[in-house]
């Protein structure tokens, strides 16, 4: 029985979850999914001690993963394709792995340690990590999209947003959705000279919000429960898409699902993309690419604030001490759901968000 449970758990963990690691982004969308192969727990454990010189079947999948997120081309300027990777833990892979660990805020070991593997099998945003304009200052880890696009025009200004009347969900009321987004927009408008106003006119709204299932026409199909949670487009596209298959929650005290995802946290992150921010290396930042189930991380971190203010300037009414925003993270304290079937899922970072490099038209 134990074996069956373990096998099933392993299947869920290493088959279902990695399937979400398949998205690709940007104007040069990849036609084929890239996933770390499904493996049993025993197989995955073999990688944990892997270091330079190791040769283990499946290392190539990790290479593809790092290649896909920009850790090969940027660091080595080598035009490698995903089809030419071997299973040897070579120096280039080690270097790419170190860059990855550094970028994601992991302990830099240069090895496939358990935390690194956990992060790599975690659903995440499809934006290559080394494809943005990163501020390397010691306290600035926010990143822009290439070209530093932002909503143009003199500040202060107002942007309208609207919810698709067609692409919506029914597990939350429109009132609950609107409240969550209103709070998310307000977090940003509190710190920059931008005001967001909800509009009933979806067609003319500058920011268009919708819940979509599977393939929804932009080349980045959603993938069902967990994994890909949402994706959005850089300025001035205004498109903000959420995966309708998620168990979206606005109150974990009422939503007992172990795969519940906090709508406000994801909304706040996606609005950050809509405004022009890419992913941050700061784990506590709203713009860090991942979010665990039942985790709430919607308050702006000092890194988020500095990033967005460098694009738009400060809201003249913003008087908060930036230092007080440090470690401004809240985790829901609601008790765990009764008799969880997949307790291991709590270790997963499931906040997958994907954004795109869209060059605004003339
Ligand atoms: Zn989409
Ligand atoms: Zn993102």
Question: What does this molecule look like?
Answer:
The chain crosses the membrane at residues 342-359. InterPro entries: M10A_MMP, MetalloPept_cat_dom_sf, Pept_M10_metallopeptidase, Pept_M10A, Peptidase_Metallo, Peptidoglycan-bd-like, PGBD-like_sf. Residues 1-29 form the signal peptide. The protein is α/β, with parallel strands linked by helices and 362 residues long. It folds into 2 domains: 2-120, no CATH class; 133-356, Collagenase (Catalytic Domain) (3-Layer(aba) Sandwich). It is built from 9 helices and 10 strands. Strands 4-3-5-7-6-10 form a 6-stranded mixed β-sheet, covered by helices on one side. A hairpin with a 5-residue loop joins strand 6 and strand 7. Helix 7 packs across helix 8. The model is unreliable at 1-41, 135-139 and 326-362 (pLDDT under 50). The structure holds zinc ion (ZN) (2 copies).
Radius of gyration, Cα only, in angstroms? 20 Å
Q: So, CATH architecture of the largest domain?
A: 3-Layer(aba) Sandwich
Q: What oligomeric state is this? A: single chain
**Small molecules in complex:** zinc ion
Q: What value does the average pLDDT take?
A: 75
- CATH class descriptor name of the largest domain: Alpha Beta
Distance between the termini: 62 Å
Low-confidence stretches: 1-41, 135-139, 326-362
How many separate helices? 9
Listing every helix as H and every strand as E from the N terminus to the C terminus, the arrangement reads: HHHHHHEEEHEEEEEEHHE
CATH topology of the largest domain: Collagenase (Catalytic Domain)
What percentage of residues falls in helices of 4 or more residues? 25-40%
Question: What is the structural class?
Answer: alpha/beta
CATH fourth-tier homologous superfamily of the largest domain: Collagenase (Catalytic Domain)
Number of domains: 2
